[in-house]
């Protein structure tokens, strides 16, 4: 035990021997101050430690950011190096100044050749456009001739000849006077020629065929004006059994000694179907004749249809009488016209084509108009 601790031990022994007397608590504020100081020192230490830790973390984050910037800069440097290599390769692949001059000279020569070709083509087209238009006019006249000879189509032929005349008018050539004169005559002849309504006749005959398919015979009814039936019916009460039988049989049997007209047999079953078929075929043949402009076929077919109606149907039948009247009316309608001849016009145009400059090799011989004339006949 040290010397300093000896008095304390002695003091403790004396204090233990002496009786304890209560003294006021004079050392309590001093103990509280020490505890408060310890707490403050602990808080300051914790704050200093936290601040130090935060500084360390900040430094680490800054180091990471700088490392990222370094890596990015390194990547950009590598990309720049690759781009520089590519540019260097492209620069090596570029032609030299001599090659560029040679290519520029070839391009100028090519442009000059193209310009010369374009000028030649424009010259050729400008010179041959007239010949093409004249050849088109000849083709239109040939087509008009065929339309007249094959179909007797006045409207189409008029439009085609008018188109050919417009082409000659566009040429503004005095040498085309004779050809245009013939075209004017042909146009006047075409416009003065009537055009039959063949389509309308075809449709009307079709409607008559439908009506003929529904045509039924008229059932005859016997009227005895003061004859035998009246005398027999007068015997008895006026409504005897004999009179009823005679009235019933009068619908099936008819005996008339002084008949003023022929009595046609009553059609039924297969006979009626055959008559209807014959009438329909005759009207169908008339349709064909009307559509193709065959007057003889058209009139003969309508005449045959009228004979079928007169021979098998009663004149008192209103349906057959109306059908017969309509057939007689359609038989007078024209289906064929005398078309004008376009051969002189075609020959005049071909003669002009032979005289036209540059068109002698393309135009055909005037003798070629003979087949067109034969086709028109």
UniProtKB/TrEMBL annotation:
The chain crosses the membrane at residues 33-54. Keywords: Lyase, Membrane, Transmembrane, Transmembrane helix. Residues 1-29 are annotated as: Disordered. InterPro entries: HemX (IPR007470). One of its GO terms (molecular function) is uroporphyrinogen-III synthase activity. Its EC number is 4.2.1.75. It comes from the Bacteria. This is Uroporphyrinogen-III synthase. It comes from Metapseudomonas furukawaii.
């Amino acid at each position: 035990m040290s010397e300093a601790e000896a008095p304390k031990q002695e003091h403790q022994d004396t204090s233990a021997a002496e009786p304890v007397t209560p003294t006021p608590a004079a050392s309590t504020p001093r103990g509280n101050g020490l505890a408060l100081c310890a707490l403050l020192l602990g808080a300051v230490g914790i704050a200093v430690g936290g601040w130090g830790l935060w500084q360390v973390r900040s430094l680490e984050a800054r180091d990471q950011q700088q490392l990222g910037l370094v890596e990015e800069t390194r990547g950009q440097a590598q990309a720049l190096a690759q781009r520089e290599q590519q540019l260097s390769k492209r620069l090596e692949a570029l032609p030299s100044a001599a090659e560029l001059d040679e290519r520029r000279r070839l391009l100028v020569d090519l442009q000059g050749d193209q310009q010369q070709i374009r000028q030649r083509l424009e010259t050729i087209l400008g010179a041959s456009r007239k010949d093409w238009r004249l050849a088109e006019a000849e083709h239109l006249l040939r087509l008009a001739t065929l339309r007249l000879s094959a179909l007797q189509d006045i409207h189409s032929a008029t439009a085609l000849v008018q188109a050919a005349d417009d082409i000659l008018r566009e040429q503004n050539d005095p040498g085309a006077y004779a050809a245009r004169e013939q075209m004017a005559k042909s146009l006047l002849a075409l416009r003065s020629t009537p055009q039959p309504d063949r389509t309308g006749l075809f449709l009307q005959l079709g409607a008559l065929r439908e009506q003929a398919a529904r045509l039924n015979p008229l059932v005859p009814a016997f009227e005895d004006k003061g004859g035998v039936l009246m005398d027999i019916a007068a015997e008895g009460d006026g409504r005897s059994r004999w009179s009823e039988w005679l009235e019933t049989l009068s619908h099936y049997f008819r005996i008339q000694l002084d008949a003023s007209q022929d009595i046609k047999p009553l059609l039924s079953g297969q006979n009626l179907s055959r008559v209807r078929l014959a009438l329909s075929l005759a009207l169908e043949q008339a349709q064909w004749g009307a559509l193709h402009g065959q007057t003889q076929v058209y009139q003969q077919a309508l005449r045959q249809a009228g004979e079928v109606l007169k021979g098998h149907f009663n004149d008192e039948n209103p349906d057959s009488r109306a059908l017969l009247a309509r057939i007689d009316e359609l038989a007078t309608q024209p289906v064929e016209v005398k078309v004008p001849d376009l051969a002189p016009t075609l020959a005049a145009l071909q003669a002009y084509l032979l005289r036209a400059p540059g068109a002698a090799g393309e135009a055909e011989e005037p003798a070629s108009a003979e087949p067109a004339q034969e086709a028109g006949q």
